[in-house]
Amino acid sequence: MAPQTPGYEVAAGHLEKFAGTAGDAGAEVQGALDGTPRFEGWNLAPLAGVPLVGLLFVNRLNAVADTWAAGARVLRETLTSDSERLVRVAATYVQVERANAAGGKP
């Protein structure tokens, strides 16, 4: 197979690969977000022996979980939307290069 000549189609291929990686990272962040533990009433049974200390611990842990979840949502949305934008940019580069080639422009 002959090496590809540099141009927008080669650059677009790299952009599409990067977009795929960003999209996959967004999916992994969603998985981590789904797995973020949060203590509710039903899973506090092990802490029933020390209610005051247990409640302070649970509130602290839930605050950390809420902060993580908020940050993970922002990261997921950013990765997903940027991935979609990169795919559109790569397609535009290819269209422009093909239009220039069809019109006889360098």
* Terminal Cα span: 24 Å
How is the biggest beta sheet arranged? none
Order of helices and strands: HH
Number of DSSP helices?
2
Q: Nearest-angstrom radius of gyration?
A: 24 Å
Please state the overall shape, judged from the principal axes of the Cα atoms: rod-shaped
Report low-confidence residues grouped into runs of 5 or more.
Answer: none
Q: What structural class results from the helix and strand content?
A: mainly alpha
Amount of beta strand: under 5%
Helical coverage, percent range: over 70%
Tell me what you see in this structure.
Helix 1 runs antiparallel to helix 2. The chain has one domain. The protein is mainly α and 106 residues long. It contains 2 helices and no strands. It starts with 7 loop residues before the first helix and ends with a helix. The longest helix is centred in the last third of the chain and has 52 residues. The radius of gyration is 24 Å and the shape is rod-shaped. It comes from Planomonospora sphaerica. This is Excreted virulence factor EspC (Type VII ESX diderm).
